[in-house]
Amino acid sequence: MAIRIGIMGYGNLGRGIECAVKQNDDMELAAVFTRRDPSTVKIQTEGVAVYPAADAAAHKDEIDVLILCGGSATDLPEQTPEYVKYFNVVDSFDTHANIPSHFANVDAAAKAAGNVGIISVGWDPGMFSLNRLYANCILVDGADYTFWGKGVSQGHSDAIRRVKGVKNAKQYTVPVPKALEAVRNGENPELSTRQKHTRECYVAAEEGADKEQIVNDIVTMPNYFADYDTTVNFVSEEELIKNHSGIPHGGFVIRSGRTGQNGENKHIIEYSLKLDSNPEFTSCVLVAYARAAYRLNKEGASGAKTVFDIAPAYLSSKSGEELRAHLL
Amino acid sequence: MAIRIGIMGYGNLGRGIECAVKQNDDMELAAVFTRRDPSTVKIQTEGVAVYPAADAAAHKDEIDVLILCGGSATDLPEQTPEYVKYFNVVDSFDTHANIPSHFANVDAAAKAAGNVGIISVGWDPGMFSLNRLYANCILVDGADYTFWGKGVSQGHSDAIRRVKGVKNAKQYTVPVPKALEAVRNGENPELSTRQKHTRECYVAAEEGADKEQIVNDIVTMPNYFADYDTTVNFVSEEELIKNHSGIPHGGFVIRSGRTGQNGENKHIIEYSLKLDSNPEFTSCVLVAYARAAYRLNKEGASGAKTVFDIAPAYLSSKSGEELRAHLL
Predict the structure, then answer these.
(1) pLDDT at residue B157 in the model
(2) What digits encode the pLDDT tens for the residues A42-92?
(3) Contacting residues of A for B261, CB less than 8 Å apart
(4) Which residues pair with residue A233 across a beta bridge?
(5) According to the model, what pLDDT value does residue A1 have?
(6) pTM for the whole thing?
(7) B104 part of contact set with chain A, CB < 8 Å
(8) How far is A152 from chain B (nearest CA, A)?
């Protein structure tokens, strides 16, 4: 019997989950939940119902794993501990600083309910975290580097849109090639924020707006841009929509370390992602961990988990024999 | 109390284990076992005994995990099922085709003894396998590529040394840059053996040897070289020792896949290693999994395991709280 997946929230991530579920033969989409009026939400999968989010608990027996597609700022801190009372859940909570408290909240609720809640799944946190962990355990004497991009930062794009005179904007985070190269060469550079990434902005200005002021407001914006070399390119709104509507992202996790009697041998471990669609890739990771949540719970596990706590074989629909024969 | 590590076999890998144990504060080297006369084996760690391999079982209470550093052809198929009767063990068994039967043998003996035996640990099989598995579970609709090198192949170097007129030799396996680039671009190329790797040979010939015959014997050698573009460089034995004594290796595991309603979005996951010393890096991986073997056994686990079966957190000396706070 297929694993029955529920989707909570039908934005970019929710639509990505829907696509990913279709690619996995051992899964089926059971329901979509939304805070909007369900009659206004059109999904791609025929015969699957869209319910009000408020009614989710009533459908708990129809769903094996509920994938939570809300945001980390306000949705997930409430939703994950709430829905894990009724479902095995997976979320992509990505506010790094608040992971410990989120974990504790989900763990308590999940254990009380006998369900599994896997938090902070995606690529960072997620696959990047896993690669940091593996690389740290292997190269004990070494240094870690994470670079993000080239990719769209939603938060930075939003920040630009709030600048006076800006109609629309997209911001790309770009790793500095020279820094990346130095790390790959095992030079273990100390890199400032400015030395690691640049920020490329594409801005459609309102008619008659003061472009000089826009540039100045962007490049001096504290936290978002002031610590970076930022370039601002003015484009028409048509061009912005035509050339900058995608949501690509990616990045690099590199650990550089030394071994030997006197640290005479250098080693570089590098993991990288090049993604046409950030939310669709994140969705694929969430769906693989939904399988793990289902299987772990079937074995009697409960509580909060992260990617660190889950043996890789749980992500696969293949048996241990098949995995050893074909992928080991 | 530190995890007490034993080393079975003191060659390149055994010496690498000794170095790696020193880098890990929660471990200590307890003993080295050898099939040679122990009085002829000088190790680097003061105060640690070298015992005859035949006496290993007598020391079972002094050791938490025995790391088996023998070869996959004849040593490990016998040693792993034998020593897991007395110890938790980790090996680097790398004959891919025989992994299923090796796993079955180790599993039966390990379960009977209540010990853990982790097999096929290293980078391929090992970290490369893990990355193949994770990437396959995430990008369901995609293609896998593994490239090895640039690095020394011991087996191919040995094969050249058996050619008439060859005094000494080293062989490097080198990925073809054009093939690597096509894969990274998501072109999903179909690649023949010849299109993926080239083979570079450095040969010190005996005096008066027929170099033309040597080249011909190498490049036409079935299985080893006939299916590759092979170059043979003649060098003096001094130059061979001076410039080609290292044991570097590495490689790339790439998965290229598609997502979306109609597969409209491409994604590339790439994992790569650049290693100055193949045996020292492999040793670091073995030591991290020795920690996992110890902890799993403490929790009551027994039987054969592979990297697929072990949650990443078991490799780390840090607590779940620390890992979530700093690496997630």
Answers:
(1) 95
(2) 999 999 999 999 999 999 999 999 999 999 999 999 999 999 999 999 999
(3) 19, 44
(4) A202
(5) 86
(6) 0.96
(7) no
(8) 15
**Six token digits for residue B201:** 């040979």
Averages of pLDDT over runs of 10 residues in chain B (328 residues) are 97 98 98 97 97 98 98 96 98 95 98 98 98 98 97 94 97 97 94 97 97 97 96 97 96 98 96 98 98 98 98 98 96
For residue A153, the SS3 value is coil
The size of chain B, in residues, is: 328
Q: Do A275 and B267 touch (CB under 8 A)?
A: yes
Half-sphere exposure of A215 (CA within 13 A, CB side): 9
Exposed/middle/buried for A57, CB within 10 Å: 0-12, 13-18, 19+?
A: exposed
Q: Is B273's Cβ below 8 Å from some Cβ in A?
A: yes
In this structure, which amino acid lies at residue B294?
Answer: Y
Yes or no, beta carbons of A260 and B280 under 8 Å apart:
yes
Kindly report the average pLDDT of chain A as a whole number: 97
- Residue A31 confidence (pLDDT): 98
Reported ipTM: 0.97
pLDDT value at position A54? 97
- Nearest chain B residue (CA) to A13: B260
Tell me the chain B residues in contact with residue A307 when contact means C-beta distances shorter than 8 Å. 312, 328
Asked if omega into A274 is within 30° of 0 (cis), the reply is no
Structure token pair of residue A235: 């484009």
Residues 6+ apart with CB under 8 A from A3: A26, A27, A28, A64, A65, A290, A291, A294
In this model, does residue A312 exceed pLDDT 90?
yes
Question: Which residue in A has a C-alpha nearest to residue B120's C-alpha?
Answer: A328
Nearest to A267 among B44, B265, B274 (CB): B274
Residue A71 CB partners (closer than 8 Å, separation 6+):
none
3-class state of residue B238 by DSSP: helix
* Interface residue A104 vs chain B (CB under 8 A): no
B residues 193..232 contacting A (CB < 8 A)? none
In one-letter notation, the amino acid at residue A257 is G
Chain A residue numbers touching B260 (CB-CB < 8 A) = 19, 277, 280
